[in-house]
Amino acid sequence: MISSIIRAAVFTALIHFIYSVDIKGFCHNESHDCPCGSTGTTVNVKVDGCSYVRRFEFRCRPCDRDSYDKVCPNYAHCQTCAPGLNGCETCPPGKYGVWCTLDCRCQNGGVCDKDTGNCRCLPGFSGALCEIRDGCPPPAHPQGVLATMAPPNLPKIIHYNCPTGFKRIGEGTINCQNDGSWNGVPPYCERQVPCPPLPDVARSVAQVHGAATSVREIQYNGTTVTYSCADGYEVVGAKSLECTHEGAWTASPPSCLKVSETEVTCSTKANEILSDDSDTAVRVHCPPGCGLVPGSVIGSYQYHVLSSICRAAVHAGRVNNAGGAVHVRAAGAYADFVSSTAHGVSSANFSSLGASFRFVTVDDSQWRIPDEGCPPKWTDSGSFCFYSAGKSRSQAPARNFCRNLGSQAIALRGDNATKALVAEFLVANGIGETWLSELQVQSPFLLNPATSGTPGDSCMALSVANPSQPEVITRPCGLALPVTCFALKTLKLVQCEDPGPVKGGSALVEKTAHGRFLEGSRISYYCKELHYLSGEGRLTCTANGTWSAQKPRCIPVVTCGEPEVPSHGTIRVLPPIRGGDPRRGPVRGHARASVPIRLQRPLSLSSTVYDGNDTTAAEEANLVLPPGHHRVGSRAEYACLPQYEMAGSTVRRCLSSGQWSGLPATCIPVCGRSDSPRSPLIYNGNASDVGQWPWQAALSVRNPVSNDSAAEWVLNCGGSLLSETWVVTAAHCVTYEASRVVIPRDILRIALGKHFRSDSKDDANVQVRQVAEIHVNFDYDPSTYDNDIALLQLDEAVELTPRVRPVCLPTDRSARVHLQEGKLGVATGWGLTESGDYADVLSEAVLPVVANEKCQEAYERAGVPLTVSEAMFCAGHANATSDACSGDSGGPMVFLDDAVTTERRWILEGVVSWGSPSGCAVANQYGGFTRVFAFLPWIKQFV
Fold first, then answer.
1. Averaged over 313-341, what is the pLDDT?
2. Omega into 397 within 30° of 0, i.e. cis?
3. Which alpha helices (DSSP H) does 766-825 contain, by range?
4. Per-residue pLDDT tens for 665-683?
């Protein structure tokens, strides 16, 4: 029973096994068409057939009963399919795997291996994911450019250079980017063309944009140089220059111009504008009429800094009488300023070295007022032109800065249009406040009292803090505010030519515009002294471009100036013989104070007297002579004071040439005249009368050892007065004994008009002077007394009186006549008398002249050999009745001039020099005298 159950169970299990297990080999394989990807193609897929038992029958079916449903969908992932493959043939981009179900991470076009997923990179890329670009295709190579590629075939970087003589334009290096493009374009090479070197521009800073770093280096085309000026200077000209392909700069270098901040008038001198170290041009604007008014001008091409700068500008032809801008520069030390007359202005010469200036040409077109419109770089705001300076300034310099630009600081008018224009310009240029030059009472601008400063120390300014409502405020005048200048826009108007100055007169220009005489301009002319105006005195520029009348003339009136009053003389000027003023009294010793004289008619060049018959113009008749001028025909009569006599014309007449006739009168001292009635007939001499010998001088020497004040000065020698300041004496009187060494002048004094030897007896007529200079003749020999003569200059001129007069110097004729054997002369002095005492009063001795040979032989016979030279002569009596002696040295020996018959004149022929070594008044031993005529040329060098 059990075994049967077991067999039944085994059989049942076997049947179930056979039924449930597919058995290959008994059935044929099946095939199916599966869709491949999205291309619309199919792939035939074979499916293995397996047998199975059903109801004890073998049947066929796919071994994998779900194979179709499982296999066909997989082919939808493929890109391409192939029969017999258990997977996709190829995968779509970005997929890999048996059935292309895995995502590929390759970059830059890299493709994954279908089975492994490894990236296969396109050429030029590398890396696990092809994320690394190995290079870019080289760009087109520019002609003439040197390129270095790394790596060579597919470069990542390219360096560019240019051959010598060329300049690279563009980047020197470009890099390959991950997107396969280059980060720049290749450059090109441009031939280098050098431009001329740029000069240094004083007061500027130059920035070079190019290969060079300094303007001193060679600059090539493409280089740009930008200029800026130092503080206080304005750029005139182009601020930026570029070197072009033609080897030229686009513009000339600019200059840094200093616009003067000083107020300029017609009398302003150059040294008020220029500083010593100024090496740049300074711009000033000359007012109108400067060539028509007086003022100093020194030089022609270069001018002295003391010259009136605007008159010099007219003289140099830089501006006319309508005024205008000029540029000046300090020119250093200069000599030989040459005078000339140009453009109606006369300049003086100056030969000494002096500081100078000159006018320079500056291209300031950006500031020059054009014939029509606004200057370049100015802002055109309708009817106004505005300019904003680069530097802030206090009020006065700001005002003068604008004036020297030929414009003015902002001035408000009484209309809203002006208000809007000014505010608009200030806001556009970032200016919050600026100075005002003037403010009219009816101006619509508001004055804000809250911002006002202290009266007298505040100036008006304009604030546009609220652009819609500008305010007039006050600020301290010394505060620096932005400077805004404005000028009226110029229009093409009628203008007149500059009529120029009038000779002998001046003019006042009343109205001009921008350095031109426009319609309505006026000039008023005035004549100088001694000229009268002929014609219309006021001219107006009319609508047809001509002046309303011919330019007038200033006709000169010929007069003579004040005649010089001679020293020690008088003069009186008498009017012409007919008409004129009453006789005038004499004037003594100084210029006469004249009273203006009204002319009865003008003086012609040939007139000498006035007859009052000619009919003249009213302006001529009304001319008044100023003091110091005399009409033609006036007479000047001269006279001399006592003790002087006239040399020259005693009467001179004013000629039609404006000169006085004749020679100028001179009063010279009367020489050699004595008022004493005695006829002079020193040892054994006679006492003279007081004042008999008025040229006698007494030389005293200070006694250094005397304690007696009265004996302090010792009369030592005599001398002779030659003029008010010169005395002649013997050289041995003013030198140390047996020496040429001159004694100190401060131990000498000279008395004139003296009669008594003792100083205590001197009266008020004695004049005492100190010695200013001592001149000993350079040939003086102390051993032989040859050339024994000296001149003494007094420290103060003596007054000539009857007691003090000069002696006459000899002439060739007088010396030949007087110094003959036996001729009598007079020697004077205070020397020893026959008693052995010095004379108490001035004594005189009449001595005959002794021939030099006779004198020399007499001394030889006495055993005293000496030589009487041609510069000496001897005088004395053989019996020694009188002689010159000790104390008489240096005194005069005079002779009465026989040629004068009307009055006695005494001639100085000798100076007492030496005597006998045996003593005074020794028989046959005569006195020696210096022959004065021999030294006349030397004396005239001083006297």
1. 91
2. no
3. 812-818
4. 889 899 998 876 554 434 4
Catalytic-residue membership of 141: no
Overall average pLDDT of the 760-772 stretch: 94
Is residue 732 part of the annotated active site? The answer reads yes
* Residue 383 backbone dihedrals phi, psi, to 5 degrees: -90, 0
Contacts of 937 (CB under 8 A, 6+ apart): none
Catalytic pick among 255, 347, 814, 889: 889
| 676, two tokens | 């004493």
Q: What is the pLDDT of residues 822-835, one digit of tens each?
A: 999 999 998 876 56
In angstroms, the CA 708 to CA 712 distance is: 6
CB 909 within 8 A of CB 814: yes
Q: Is 889 a catalytic residue?
A: yes
The stretches of 574-627 forming alpha helices (DSSP H) are 618-621
More confident call, 629 vs 213: 629
As a whole number of angstroms, the longest Cα–Cα distance in the chain is 232
**Among 788, 883, 888, 897, which one carries the catalytic annotation?**
788
For residue 169, how many other CB atoms are within 10 A of its CB?
13
Question: What tokens does 917 get?
Answer: 């070594």
- Nearest partner of 828 among 706, 694, 925, 943, judged by Cα: 694
Sorted by where each starts, the structural domains of the chain and their CATH numbers stand as 21-96 (no CATH), 146-191 (2.10.70.10), 194-255 (2.10.70.10), 260-359 (2.170.130.20), 379-488 (3.10.100.10), 502-556 (2.10.70.10), 560-668 (no CATH), 686-940 (2.40.10.10)
Name the active-site residue from 732, 755, 775, 877. 732
Phi and psi dihedrals of 161, rounded to 5?
-145, 165
User: Quick one: tokens of 535?
Assistant: 């014609």
Q: Decide if 790 contacts 776 (C-beta within 8 A).
A: yes
